[in-house]
Amino acid sequence: MDDRRAARRRERARQIQRRRRVAFGLFVLAFAAIAVAVVVGTSGGSSSSSTTASQAASSSDTGRHHRRAQPLPGTETVGDHKARREPVPILMYHVIGYVKPSTPNQELWVSPSTFSAQVRALARAGYHGVTLQRVYDAWHGSAELPSKPVVISFDDGYYGQYRNARPTLLRHGWPGVLNLKLDNLADMGGVRNIKRMVADGWEIDDHTITHPDLTAVSADQLRYEIGTSRKRFHKLFGVPANFFCYPAGRYDQAVIDEVRNAGFKAATTTLFGYARPGDTWTLARVRVNRSDGVDGVLRNLRTLGANPNAAPTGSNTGE
C-alpha cells in the first residue's frame, strides 16, 4: 500500500516537471518571437534612418562622409554601346552661386537652384553624365559610352563648384570635370577639398597656374603655365591631369604645340558646339549662361544635337 502511494507521488512529481518544462518552452518561444519582431522593426527603422542620414551627408558641403559617386540605376548600363567616334556635348559652367546687384560678369553665374534644376532636366531627358576621360577613351576604342552622354565641366575653380555643384551631381551619380586654375586653389578650400571631389569621381584638369592669355606670354612663361602646372597637378592631387583648358579660350599653334609637348591628351576651348573626336586640341563646348535657365540649356543641346558634326562657331580670341 505504501509502495503504491509512493509510486503515485512519484508519477505526480514527474507530471508536474513535464508541465513546467512545457510551460518554460512555450515561454522561451514567445520571448524569441517578440525579440525577432523587435529586431526586425528596429532594423527597418535603422535602415530608413541610415538612408536619410546618408542622403543628408551626400548634400553636406563638408564632404567628410562623401563616397565615390555611384551611378543611379541605369545610368551606366541602359543604352551603353560599343565605343563610337561620336560627338559629345561638354557643358561649360563657371560660378555656381547667387549674384548681388554689384556682381560683375553676372552671365557667368548660375544659381545653385537653377543648376540643380538643369541637372534634373538633363537626367529626365535621358542624358548621362560622363568624364572627358571616358569620352576620350571611347573615341580611342578602350571604353563605352552610355546613350546621350554629356560632360559637365566647370572652369577656374570657385568654392560654389565644391559647395553647390558637387552635392547636386553626387545625388545623381554623375561626375564633374573641374578645369582648375591653380592660383584659385585656396578659394576651393585647398587640396583636401579637391581630393574629396576626386574621391567622388570628379576629373580634375589643368587650366594653368595664373590664367594668362597664353598667346601673349613669353616662351618661358608658356612652359611654366602648361608643363609646370601639369607636374604640380600630379604632385598635389595625385591625378594625371590628362586634359588642358585654354584660359579664356585663347590659343594659337605655339600654344597647342606646348600643350601637346607637355603630355596632355586633348584640350578644350570656348568654341560653341559639340566636341568632335577629330578636334583633339580644339574641343568645343556648350557655354551655360545665367540667362539660359533650364529651357535654354535643353534648347541648345537639341539645336546642336540635330547636327552634332557641324563645325563649332565662335573664335579662339577670347570668351
Topology:
Layout: H1 2-58, E1 90-93, E2 95-96, E3 109-110, H2 112-124, E4 128-130, H3 132-139, E5 149-156, H4 159-172, E6 177-180, H5 191-199, E7 203-206, H6 219-237, E8 243-245, H7 253-261, E9 266-272, E10 283-287, H8 293-305
Parallel strand pairs: 1-5, 1-10, 2-3, 4-5, 5-6, 6-7, 8-9, 9-10
Helix pairs in contact: 2-4, 2-8, 6-7
Please explain how this structure is put together.
This protein is α/β, with parallel strands linked by helices and 319 residues long. It has helices spanning 2-58, 112-124, 132-139, 159-172, 191-199, 219-237, 253-261, 293-305, and strands at 90-93, 95-96, 109-110, 128-130, 149-156, 177-180, 203-206, 243-245, 266-272, 283-287. It has two domains: 1-58; 69-305, TIM Barrel. It has eight helices and ten strands. Strands 1, 4, 5, 6, 7, 8, 9 and 10 form an eight-stranded parallel sheet that branches. A two-stranded parallel ribbon has the order 2-3. β8 (243-245), α7 (253-261) and β9 form a beta-alpha-beta unit. Mean pLDDT is 84; it is low at 35-78.
Question: How would you summarize what this structure contains?
Answer:
With 319 residues, this protein is an alpha/beta fold. It is built from eight helices and ten strands.
Helix-strand category = alpha/beta
CATH hierarchy, class of the largest domain: Alpha Beta
| Rg over CA atoms | 30 Å
Shape: elongated
What is the CATH architecture assignment of the largest domain? Alpha-Beta Barrel
Give the mean pLDDT.
84
- The CATH topology of the largest domain corresponds to TIM Barrel
Q: Helix content range of the residues, please?
A: 40-55%
Helix count from the secondary structure assignment: 8
Distance between the termini: 118 Å
Unreliable spans: 35-78
Strand content: 5-15%
